Structure formats: structure tokens, C-alpha cells
Fold this sequence. Notes:
elongated; single chain; alpha+beta; 3 helices
Amino acid sequence: MIRTSHPKKEVEEALRHAEGHGWRIEVGGSHAWGRAYCPYNDQECRCGEFCITSIWSTPKNPGNHARALRRVVDNCSTHRNRRDADHHAKE
């Protein structure tokens, strides 16, 4: 099923980045435009508290919100550890 696009292009680009790393985006909710869910959700994952992140529909600064979403995806411990393991395996 195709999700609806976010109205702010910077945020939409960050959501595509998240989806490219396996994160699931669900549109809808009470206060947020949607939520992003970590694909790993394991004990090692720092996402223990960040496995779900809210996506705001009208952030005060769309660029900052987009950077924050990318940072959550890129700083996920399990994602980082797997990326580093793949990098070391190629060396």
C-alpha cells in the first residue's frame, strides 16, 4: 500500500531515507502526521526508547525536523553495528 506524501518536502525526503533503511512509516494518529517504526526492535538497539518516532505534520522548522528524523535513523545502534560489520567484512 502506498502511503500519502508528507506536505513538507524536506520531511518527505527524510521519510524516504528512513524507508530506505527499513523503517516503517504509518500515517495517522492523534496529534502527529504519522509515526516511524524501527525495523530491528531488539535488546541491543538504542531504539529501546526511540523505536517509534513521531512525524509532525506542520513542524515549526521543517528542515530541523527532517534532520532530527534522519538522525534517529542513522544513530540506531543496531543499524550502525550492522553497517559497521558489513563495512569490516568488505575490507
